[in-house]
Amino acid sequence: GAYLTNQSVAIEFTVTDNDSGVNPDSIKLQIDSAAAVSPTRTAVTGGYKCTYTTTLSDGKHTIKVNASDYDGNAATQASSSFTVDTVPPSLNITAPPVSLITNKQSCTVSGDTNDATSGPVTVKITLNGTDQGAVTVNSSGAFSKALTLAKGTNTIVVRATDKAGKYSEVSRTVVYDPDAPVIVKVEVQPNPVGAGEIFTVTVEATD
Which residue has the higher pLDDT, 185 or 128? Predict the structure, then answer.
């Protein structure tokens, strides 16, 4: 049931027999449907410690171990399954857009994520460094979370993590500006202006 993040996989197991002893030539290791191989054997009390290192593709794999003693008695086959996953999950943020400036304090973060090898994916969202709590990811990988912005610049970080611990991260900056601009002054030149004359109105405002 392990999830491994490296395609180089080290396999280790021990075979012992307290009666006639383990026949070392009978120890065989099979990976998925490949031909059985003989692992490296090191003698230990009552048997052998065996090791084998190989390179495997991403995905689920099963190893099977067979052995017999010198009397020809075969051990019950031992097996173990695990998953190799070297690729982080996909993560697409559909909202908010990049560098959003808004006068609304409520902001919804939405998007989708997926990992074909070691899903389902969990999503964590932080706002200005604070975890925003549980995020529900539906069966299609879509998620949505409502946030309350602080006045000024807000940093939103979304992280999607698969079962192997691989993750993808996307950041968004949102500026919450609830204040309207202030008109400082209005000038008319020339002033006074005669009928039919051209004049200029200049407005100064701050925000």
Answer: 128
